[in-house]
Amino acid sequence: MRTLVGVVAALAIMGSTAGAATAEPAGSTPLDTLAACPATARSDAPVLLIHGTHADVEKSLGPVRQGLLDDGRCVYGLDYDSDEPLSASVDYFTAAVHRILAVNQGNTLDLVGKSQGALIARAVSLRFADRATNPIRTVVAVSGPQQGTSIAGIRLPTLPTGSSVPQGLPFLSPAMFDMLAGSPYLTRLNSGPMVAPGVRYVMTATSYDEIVTPYTTAFIHAPGVTDILVQDGCAADHTGHMAGSTDPRTVDLVLNALDPVRHPTVRCAANDNRK
To answer: Which segment of the chain is annotated as a signal peptide (predicted)?
Structure first.
């Protein structure tokens, strides 16, 4: 019988060796195709959106992107393989930050991530922590497993009845394993400061999250971090993890975090966990 420890150890090896980190993992948007912001874009920092697992920017952050475009903001949304180890995706998006800054001859950028993308966004900001001025101005994280999700939150095919292998674990992709509480990747990432100095962080979560569990793992209690629970001040909003992508209150919280002057209002709308 394989024990849980044995399975986890095997997956740790797989997660650390599968797909050596490269600037552009297979299936990712080629970074040399990223052009400068259009001349008509408002003179503000560009925004890089990072989608969640097995999704794309439209599924994860479509209404947020539209709201930013309506404001005249310059918005980048890149495809990436969300099954790759998180280290590879963080390498890729760090390179994307360099590319976006270079083509725009700029020095600041905002990051918005949903779920896995929210964790990646924070990790990318930490890559610049040793700079005198961090180019990442704001990180807005929507339901991100910043401190790791429990295995109960990862929905995978079940094994035959009576199987001796812990349910679900053999089917984890490297990225899913990396997002588990206590994984080698998260242990390394969170062994030092959780956030970078000089960066503003806004972490949102919903108490009805069925994927990132417990939902409090999306929060970080540190200077420069604002933790927001969707239900605070709006008990009628029962949005879960997936529905949060289009939930009016969640969308408003993100837009308000990026620009409270242009988005001063955060709606409270009843939501029965539908997108």
So the answer is: 1-20
